[in-house]
Design a protein that fits this description.
The protein is an alpha/beta fold. It is globular. The structure holds ligand 26W.
């Protein structure tokens, strides 16, 4: 009973200080009399990790003993950000750590800045996965995330002196090491590629397919603990790193080909070296397909290993295991499980397929055609020959069933998992639908489009029940409690307790303060202080002076045509040109504005990169125009990431979520801004719609073409050309005339302007421009009445309970996973 002799860590000031000093000496190997911030950060992180580990072990022990159904969240991306501050809050030890590091002569907030972001994701999908892991841990669900341990996260964005995006590698696991991961040297699986399929006779005398030959690499596990809030429970994300097989290729070694066999070993590590930096755009690279298979192969081997340890029969697998596919990226798990069950475990096809389709569920995050994964059949045949056969068989049996109820050739072609193009393609989304028991979209409108457009024919075959909506949610721990301490404290004071942090519907209780002048003043002062903090960051890092009393208007997200940052900057130019025309008297009526942009473009996305260039060029001109006199500032915050979001989100008066209706599946930053009392200027798209329904239409600025009208307009434009809005025309002319960056620069923007004219304005910037400007005017007018604005801001936060990741995770557990929490004994 050695376990009972373990002494739990103590959280008094002296013990914490002693633990940190001990780690500086014994883990970091530094002299405690000569320390820098980085070393103290690392020692502090290690001491916090010790405390997390206690909870991690307790949780795993409890779950092991109870052996309940477990859920595995398979995601190629986890956009976690920093861990230390989050862990200090969850363990409720931030104050004592602040004092302890003060005793050592350091400031805790400075130390927190030493940590590098774990940026193993592109944007919305990866951050959503991180929020759900936080919620699952907080709610004590027996849920693990599985992902890849990329050595390079999303690239670091630098804006060069010409205003263009430059990408720099994000080697986040630098020589300092990562205190937040536990290497599991003993947890390794082999993953196979290439080779061929042979027929073999098994012990029962049956003939089975067997995948032979090819290359093999090893997957090694690294565990990242995910603390829950106000629970002893601690979650886990298991990340796989590719390693060379321990067995050295002695054949080539003995042939004297020593250097080649060493090179092969290095090649194995390349597999998980870099995160693909594309968001909502497929680039069908071979290495990416190998990453996807490597990921699902290792994860399934681990899941099955654990299942076998629980002494259950295969038929019980779906009662013990739920697997959620975060978009189509892990969809190969479907044919892989079928292969394991049929080829290796010897089940017959139908019994295996019954198990497979009761285990998997699939979340769709986009309807954009260019983002839907399709893999060429020849490539798949080459890399995964047995899986390709299995996909053909899955398709054959599926089409045979469809044919029984409807033999229309057109329909069979439309629902086929194999697209009959040249070369043929595997439609991964269709494979995911056919292999899953439930498919969900991520906001009401999006789930509707999933049913009526994307998977229409599948709804016809399966019936509508298989397709559900689970509106996205965000964790209030990171996005309010941690990022906005002043607002957190005011809310806690007003509501009388911290209960809201895990029961976000409690925020409704703020409604009664919405008209309270004293409360409004406190509320708006906190907003001002958050703007002061952001203004300080901008001054220090970009040397641009912005007045915190201006209206802060923010759009931060990946740069994409469908998100229409282009429309935003065109609106800024319109505003600039109007300011130039005003008299001194008229100027006094103007609400000063700071327009802030941030976000990365995919490295190969030319149009998006031109938008970044345009924003920076406009900023150059506007910010240096003495006649504008601070009434308008434009700021591009480089390298937008989770840690910057934590400073930016609490500082918005307005944030823009202005995608063409029907294109943004949900959005999650919209939720973060509103939770922090920022108003939305947005289109009738994604989760904006449900946010409006929750907070009331008076508290949101909405405009633009509705989703069901978009196709009509596109159709008209195709045949009659684009009618450019007259105000937009003026703006475009000013760009073309060289007002921004001179005549040479103007020609650079030609291709960008062409996206509005030639071949139709696909994203409806012109069609929506007038309504957009009108909505902007309304924002300016409303902001002049501080009390009215304060009321709206309070009602925004008060109405956001629904958008907690806790609610969303519970919906997944109840409606899809059939999962119950395992409460952890707190003693
Ligand atoms: C294969 C290339 C690729 C890579 C990433 C295609 C698609 C993706 C993601 C699905 C893109 C993404 O992050 N989608 C976003 O998911 C969020 C979480 O559900 C939503 O809130 C966003 O609206 C959606 O754009």
């Amino acid at each position: 009973e050695w376990k009972h002799e373990m002494i739990p860590k103590k959280n008094d000031r002296a013990s914490v200080k002693r633990d940190i000093v001990q780690h500086t000496v014994e883990t970091i190997c530094r002299n405690p009399y000569n320390l820098d911030k980085l070393a103290v950060y690392q020692a502090t992180a290690h001491s916090v990790r010790d405390r997390l580990l206690e909870d991690w072990n307790l949780t795993q022990e409890a779950v092991h003993n109870e052996n309940p159904k477990r859920c595995y969240y398979l995601s190629m991306e986890f956009l976690i950000g920093r861990a230390l501050d989050n862990a200090l809050h969850c363990l409720e030890v931030k104050d004592v750590y602040k004092e302890s590091v003060e005793d050592l002569g350091f400031n805790l907030e400075d130390l927190l800045q030493q940590e590098r972001d774990a940026a193993l994701g592109n944007g919305g999908l990866g951050r959503l996965a991180a929020c759900y892991m936080d919620a699952a841990a907080t709610l004590d669900y027996p849920t693990w995330g599985y992902g890849l341990r990329y050595q390079y996260g999303i690239f670091k964005q630098v804006i060069n002196s010409d205003g263009y995006q430059i990408e720099m590698p994000d080697y986040w696991l630098d020589s300092n090491g990562n205190p937040w991961e536990f290497p599991r040297n003993d947890i390794r699986y082999e993953v196979q590629f290439y080779g061929y399929v042979a027929t073999k006779v098994n012990e029962k005398g049956e003939s089975r397919m067997s995948w032979e030959g090819g290359d093999r690499v090893q997957a090694m596990a690294y565990d990242v603990p995910i603390p829950g809030f106000n629970t002893k429970g601690c979650g886990n994300i298991r990340l796989w790193a590719s390693k060379p097989l321990k067995t050295f290729d002695f054949a080539s070694f003995n042939d004297g080909d020593y250097d080649r066999s060493v090179a092969d070993q290095k090649n194995a590590e390349n597999l998980t070296s870099v995160l693909y930096p594309n968001d909502n755009h497929l680039v069908g690279k071979e290495l990416r397909l190998k990453q996807e298979y490597f990921f699902v192969s290792a994860s399934l081997q681990d899941i099955i290993h654990r299942f076998k340890g629980s002494n259950c029969a295969w038929k019980d697998f779906p009662d013990k295991v739920a697997v959620q596919l975060n978009d189509t990226h892990p969809t190969l798990a479907i044919p892989e499980l079928q292969r394991i069950l049929v080829d290796i475990e010897g089940l017959d096809w139908d019994a295996a397929w019954d198990i497979v389709t009761r285990v998997f569920a699939f979340t769709n995050h986009t309807v954009l055609p260019e983002a839907l994964e399709c893999w060429s059949v020849p490539m798949m045949e080459h890399i995964l020959p047995r899986h390709m056969q299995i996909v053909y068989d899955i398709n054959l049996f599926f089409l045979q069933k469809v044919e029984k109820v409807n033999s229309d050739r057109g329909l069979l072609n439309r629902v086929s998992i194999i697209e009959e193009s040249n070369p043929q393609q595997v439609r991964m989304a269709y494979l995911a639908v056919v292999g899953s028991h439930t498919v969900n979209g991520v906001a009401a409108l999006h789930s509707d489009l999933v049913k009526t457009k994307l998977f229409k024919d599948f709804v016809g075959y399966y019936g509508p029940e298989k397709f559900i909506n689970i509106t996205n949610g965000i964790t209030p721990r990171r996005w309010l409690y941690q990022a906005n301490p002043a607002l957190r404290d005011l809310i806690t004071e007003a509501l009388g307790s911290q209960h809201w942090v895990t029961h976000l519907d409690d925020l409704k209780g703020l409604t009664k303060y919405a008209d309270d002048a004293e409360f409004q003043a406190k509320w708006m002062n906190i907003k001002l202080q958050n703007k002061v903090r952001l203004a300080g960051w901008i001054k220090k890092n970009l040397d641009i002076t912005v007045d915190p009393r201006s209206l802060f208007d923010i759009q931060v997200k990946r740069i994409h045509e469908y998100k229409r940052q282009f429309m935003n900057i065109l609106g800024v130019i319109y505003r600039y040109k109007n300011l130039q025309l005003l008299s001194a008297e008229e100027r006094r009526e103007i609400t000063p504005r700071v327009v802030i942009f941030g976000g990365k473009s995919a490295p190969g996305y030319y149009v998006a990169k031109m938008v970044i260039k345009l924003i920076n060029t406009v900023a150059q001109v506007v910010n240096n125009d003495p006649l504008i006199d601070g009434l308008l500032k434009v700021v591009y915050i480089p390298d937008y990431n989770v840690s910057l979001a934590e400073i930016i989100v609490p500082a918005s008066d307005i944030s823009q979520h202005i995608s063409t209706a029907g294109t943004e599946a949900a959005g999650t930053s919209n939720m973060k801004f509103v939770l922090n009392g920022g108003l939305i200027l947005g289109t009738v798209d994604g989760a904006n719609i449900e946010i409006r329904d929750e907070i009331g239409q008076d508290n949101i600025f909405m405009f633009g073409t509705l989703a069901d009208k978009v196709d009509d307009i596109r159709h008209k434009q195709k045949y009659h050309g684009v009618e450019i809005d007259p105000n937009l025309q003026v703006v475009l002319q000013s760009i073309q005339s060289g007002e921004f960056g001179g005549p040479e620069t103007a020609s650079v923007f030609g291709p960008l302007i062409n996206t509005l004219t030639y071949g139709g304005d696909y994203y409806l910037i012109s069609a929506d421009f007038e309504q957009y400007l009108d909505a902007q005017d309304k924002v300016d007018d409303t902001y002049k009445d501080t009390a009215a604005w304060a009321k709206k801001s309070i009602l925004c936060t008060a109405g956001m309970g629904f958008f907690s990741a806790d609610r969303a995770t519970r919906e997944y557990a109840d409606k899809i996973w059939n999962l119950k929490p395992v409460s952890i004994n707190k003693n």
